[in-house]
């Protein structure tokens, strides 16, 4: 087979650590939530005799492949160069929340109409360009097995595994930090004023409030990165969190498996925005206290998690958890195990997501082959 007549898949990513094809290395990708799916895709592509590369590698090739298909992770500094080089703008996707990737979501209609397909959380579906086929994005897990952790009576009370992030995150090592953070705040204020999509509840502050409440509660631990920098935390929050001495997590599942409950808050409240956080709890045999997608029970059984919206405050939540008996806890854990083993969980697997991508690529390749290759309109 002529290698120039096989599909070449270009994964267009702006994440520096993913470039130079590093994201396809499963050992490396496992360090980042959701990144292992690209290693799974790479394996499927290789088995078909196709080729895959990141956009920076593609653009460095002295001779570009004649049949290249671009899968863009939002819009990157490489995107237009990749498309202008003749790659078909096949798929655009985002696993980020609107309060983090606000510019992308604000211009979603313009960006998506460049592509044939869009994989996005369901709350963004109405923004997709009319000529683009919308696919709801379900978080692609590479595992569904429950890890045997400690017994219920051996576990500590409550944990949170989260980084100190917020929507005004900047590079702390660059100059003019205050000015750059102010610009981000002004842009966010403008977005909120002009675009109803951003009139959503941000949960970064809610996470900080939860930490500060449970800081004095026996059996609570905080793990994660970024807590050595104050960032948007006020002075009172900063002092409380420093006393907790949060540490980096090498094995998140191992940590979750040592606790009965985990605070499991998404970045924001947005329809369909369900990430790895709740699934990690299920697989660790830990009961999640969830806040995030308003339609969470459409995706995950309500009997498998504690919905924070049912409580007026953290005092009521703590009382509920403290009073839970072991048989009552096992009902939550049993529901989670059954969900992971059910057909309903299939759409949350990496194989399900990758198979969809492979079908789309194969159909496009067959279509182009039948009518003769024609580069996309620039």
Please give a structural write-up.
This protein is of the alpha/beta class. It folds into three domains: 3-141 and 349-371, 3-Layer(aba) Sandwich (Rossmann fold); 152-167 and 202-345, Glycosyl transferase family 10, C-terminal domain (Rossmann fold), CATH 3.40.50.11660; 169-200, no CATH class. The chain has 14 helices and eleven strands. It has helices at 26-29, 36-47, 55-60, 79-84, 102-106, 108-112, 177-194, 204-214, 235-244, 252-256, 276-283, 314-323, 326-340, 350-371, and strands at residues 8-12, 51-54, 68-73, 88-93, 117-120, 133-136, 156-161, 220-223, 259-265, 287-291, 306-307. Helix 2 (36-47) crosses helix 14 (350-371).
Q: Using the CA coordinates, give the radius of gyration.
A: 22 Å
Basic shape: globular
CATH topology of the largest domain: Rossmann fold
**Largest sheet strand order:** 2-1-3-4-5-6
Q: In DSSP terms, counting alpha (H) and pi (I) runs of 4 or more, how many helices? A: 14
Number of domains: 3
For the record, the CATH architecture of the largest domain stands as 3-Layer(aba) Sandwich
**What's the total count of β strands?**
11
The structure class reads alpha/beta
SSE sequence, one letter per element: EHHEHEHEHHEEEHHEHHEHEEHHH
**In whole angstroms, how far apart are the ends?**
29 Å
Report the average pLDDT across residues. Answer: 91
The residue ranges in which pLDDT falls below 50 over 5 or more consecutive positions are 374-378
State which percent range the strand residues make up: 5-15%
Q: Main sheet, how many strands, which sense, barrel?
A: 6 strands, parallel
CATH class of the largest domain: Alpha Beta
- Helical amount: 25-40%
């Amino acid at each position: 087979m002529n290698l120039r007549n096989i599909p070449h898949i270009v994964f267009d990513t702006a994440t520096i650590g993913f470039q130079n094809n590093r994201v396809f290395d499963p050992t490396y990708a496992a360090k980042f939530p959701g990144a292992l799916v690209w290693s799974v895709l790479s394996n499927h592509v290789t088995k078909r005799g196709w080729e895959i590369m990141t956009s920076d590698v593609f653009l460095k090739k002295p001779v570009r492949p004649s049949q290249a298909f671009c899968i863009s992770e939002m819009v990157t500094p490489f995107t237009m160069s990749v498309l202008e080089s003749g790659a078909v703008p096949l798929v655009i996707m985002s696993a980020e929340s609107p309060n983090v990737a606000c510019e992308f979501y604000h211009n979603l209609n313009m960006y998506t109409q460049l592509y044939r397909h869009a994989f996005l959380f369901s709350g963004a579906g109405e923004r997709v360009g009319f000529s683009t086929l919308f696919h709801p994005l379900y978080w692609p897990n590479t595992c569904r097995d429950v890890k045997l952790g400690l017994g219920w009576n051996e576990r500590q009370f409550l944990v949170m595994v989260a980084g100190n992030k917020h929507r005004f995150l900047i590079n702390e090592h660059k100059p003019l930090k205050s000015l750059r953070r102010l610009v981000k705040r002004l842009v966010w204020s403008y977005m909120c004023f002009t675009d109803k999509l951003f009139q959503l509840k941000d949960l970064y502050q809610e996470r900080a409030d939860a930490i500060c409440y449970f800081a004095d509660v026996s059996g609570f631990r905080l793990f994660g990165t970024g807590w050595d920098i104050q960032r948007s935390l006020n002075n009172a929050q900063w002092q409380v969190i420093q006393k907790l001495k949060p540490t980096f997590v090498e094995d998140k599942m191992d940590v979750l498996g040592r606790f009965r409950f985990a605070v499991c808050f998404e970045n924001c409240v947005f329809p369909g925005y369900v990430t790895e956080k709740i699934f990690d709890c299920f697989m660790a045999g830990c009961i999640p206290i969830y806040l995030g997608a308003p339609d969470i029970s459409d995706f995950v059984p309500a009997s498998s998690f504690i919905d924070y919206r049912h409580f007026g405050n953290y005092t009521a939540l703590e009382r509920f958890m403290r009073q839970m008996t072991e048989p009552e806890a096992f009902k939550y854990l049993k529901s989670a195990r059954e969900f992971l083993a059910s057909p309903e969980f299939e759409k949350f697997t990496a194989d399900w997501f990758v198979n969809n991508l492979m079908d789309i690529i194969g159909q496009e390749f067959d279509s182009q082959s039948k009518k003769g290759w024609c580069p996309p309109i620039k």
